[in-house]
Amino acid sequence: MGEAFPGATDRARERAGFLSVEAVAALADDGVLVLDPFSTLVSPGAVLAAGVTLWPGTTVQATAGGKVTVGTGTQLFPGTRIVAAGGRVTIGADTEIGEEGGFTIKADHPGCVIEIGGHARLLGGGSLALGNHIGDGAQVLGPIRMQDCRLEAGGSHRSPDPDRRGGVLKGSGVARGLTVPAGMVIQAFGLFAEAPLRPQSFFHPKPRA
Fold this sequence. Notes:
It contains 2 helices and 22 strands. With 209 residues, the protein is mostly beta strands. The protein folds into 2 domains: 1-134, UDP N-Acetylglucosamine Acyltransferase, domain 1 (3 Solenoid), CATH 2.160.10; 142-209, no CATH class. The chain has a 15-stranded mixed beta sheet that branches. Strand 21 and strand 22 form a beta hairpin.
């Protein structure tokens, strides 16, 4: 039975369009850190740069001609699910996705493009669907359902001047068709379209000189 179990697991993975457990573990040969290949699902067509970290319980799926590209140094935390079913998902370098509750990114029809820049941060159980552009350093903080939104690029959350950081959505609820400029934030608990756009220094006062 010990020999049959991994064989059955790999056959199920193959039917669903994922790499075998051994092939997922072998991503380490290309510099990808896979902490638990048994709970990690990766499609053969996904492109993961050296330095990517896949935490347990992550899924990277590319089907129906879809494409997923993840840049070096990016961490996909437990509960992160990335799906390109005919669409395209690109993620830049040194980005953090899925801490504090996972995250879902789904480009599930032809022509759908989701772009996530470098040094971005997406956490707290949110999701991206349809087309979205998350610029360098931008942040999505909380269980927010985003559709056709754009967060402009700026510095990361570590940048000393909050009003120069990438755009931010924080709170919970639904955000559709919104653009958040660099240095700005929308906080809402419901419909983000009804909430004000504020400078990030409203929440994070700048240090006095």
